[in-house]
Amino acid sequence: xxxxxxxxxxxxVPLSEPAEGVGRVITTAxxxxxxxxxFGAGSGPVAADAERASGYRYGQATYxxxxxxxxxGTALVxxxxxxxxxxxxxxxxxxxxxxxxxxxDLPGLAEHGLRPASLxxxxxxxxxxxxxxxxxxxxxxxxxxxxxxxxxSAVDWSTRPLxxxxxxxxxxxVEVLVEVRDVLAERLAExxxxxxxxxxxxxxxxxxxxxxxxxxxxxxxxxxxVKGRRRLAVVRSLWQAxxxxxxxxxxxxxxVLPDRAIVAAAKAMPASVPQLVALPDFATKxxxxxxxxxxxxxxxxxxxxxxxxxxxxxxxxxxxxQPRTWxxxxxxxxxxxxxxxDVVSALSEELSVPAENLLQPDALRRVCWTPPEPANAEEIGxxxxxxxxxxxxxxxxxxxLAAVFAAT
Length: 408
Known about the structure:
Elements: E1 13-15, E2 25-26, H1 29-41, E3 43-52, E4 62-70, E5 73-77, H2 86-92, E6 96-99, H3 102-111, E7 118-121, H4 122-128, H5 136-144, E8 146-148, H6 164-175, H7 177-190, H8 194-205, H9 229-249, H10 253-256, H11 259-268, H12 273-277, H13 285-289, H14 291-302, H15 326-329, H16 331-351, H17 355-358, H18 361-369, H19 377-386, H20 391-407
Parallel strand pairs: 1-8, 2-5, 3-6, 6-7
Antiparallel strand pairs: 3-4, 4-5
Helix pairs in contact: 1-2, 4-7, 5-7, 9-11, 9-14, 16-18, 16-20, 19-20
Domain HRDC: 228-308
Protein name: Ribonuclease D
InterPro entries: 3'-5'_exonuclease_dom (IPR002562), Exo_C (IPR041605), HRDC-like_sf (IPR010997), HRDC_dom (IPR002121), HRDC_dom_sf (IPR044876), RNase_D-like (IPR051086), RNaseH-like_sf (IPR012337), RNaseH_sf (IPR036397)
């Protein structure tokens, strides 16, 4: 089952039941202590996954933690009943943890005291290997020839009690994760990419929490179609009212009021509740019931002084301008960027690594807009290092970028 030969579609065998069954969900301190003892006595890496209720609840809280280790089996733990899981982390010590797309789950696991001492990310490994599809089901099929169902990936994991078929799905997510890791590790070694992967895994493992986004209301889908500062103020005010309502009710903001409704109201700028509910996007029962609150938010925006209206340009950042403006603002920088992108694209094809995994686009833009002086490989390397580029990326790209910059 651990052959390194990619499976074809016809080779895939459905994986429908965990080897030891699903088992019960751990909800008591006594049961958690037993799990900690078993996992501490187990061997090898710890496979882990976490389930959230994105699209249903406010925020990104974790509602189920799945763990598996050789000699210990699989444990499904309810962190709403057992918020402190640090004893589990202590029990496994410095064992490697295996996750798929770890950056999605590590913050939630850390909130419950689970912080891996080392990491193997199967999704990142698949990217570095140039696999065409990197979702967990696709990677399991490619590496092990097993079919992993994903029909419950978007359900409301805050539901209690959790249905048995959801728990089966959750257990299967970690059932063969260590076996997948072993195949991918073998392929990385054969491709000469093991050190690249190690640096990427450590980068993800040690990432600090993201800084708060300035003016997050601008992420309302469709805001780019809203013209004028007054209408943007309506978007902002409705977003703020929606956030307050969603946080108080612990409901996903999109379920409280869809983005399209916010944009529709900003474009129409209704002056009364009847005008607001006449808009098609406010015709639902929930939107009509809360219409007075939404109209109050709109009225606050309509009453603002001009000086308090948001800018049409968005918040100021320390980054370079949009690349589409470079040709007019700095033609030399535009040529640097074009040449640098060609280098990254060619290297991506040669190494079978996605361009964004060779270097973050933001770092590439920044070094092209304001290159260091002198723009040699060493200085460019230091610049990229300051933008969190890893050493393997710097080794590959700094000399090539220096050649491009010298030619422009």
